Structure to design on (129 residues):
């Protein structure tokens, strides 16, 4: 299996519809959106930069988070799971962090096993889009 740092899909729809659908499918895998960062608005406000719509959703599945923190308090460095949406020519690109790649530096078999479960859950969510 090829390892990448992200899980990704392109959705042929409006940005608003894509964000709504992503939020809804994350819920089907028990992920809630804890944070929503509107990067486009923030960069426009702070430095006057022009950017296409770009949103970072901080998604968290409480059971996975609890298990990760129980295995290692350093796991908090990887929480929440970031899901990014940005516009491309053919639709809205959705990118989710690959948790397996995130835990590699910790060299902890328990975290790797958990990260594989989290990745499978995120993959199932993205497959529903």
């Amino acid at each position: 299996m090829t390892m990448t740092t992200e899980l990704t899909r392109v959705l042929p729809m409006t940005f608003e519809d894509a964000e709504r659908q992503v939020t809804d499918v994350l819920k089907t895998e028990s992920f809630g959106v804890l944070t929503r960062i509107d990067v486009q608005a923030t960069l426009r406000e702070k430095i006057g930069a022009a950017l296409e719509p770009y949103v970072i959703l901080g998604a968290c599945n409480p059971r996975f988070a609890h298990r990760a923190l129980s295995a290692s308090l350093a796991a908090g460095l990887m929480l929440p799971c970031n899901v990014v949406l940005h516009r491309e020519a053919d639709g809205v690109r959705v990118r989710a962090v690959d948790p397996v790649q995130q835990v590699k530096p910790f060299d902890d078999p328990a975290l790797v096993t958990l990260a594989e479960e989290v990745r499978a859950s995120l993959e199932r969510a993205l497959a529903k889009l």
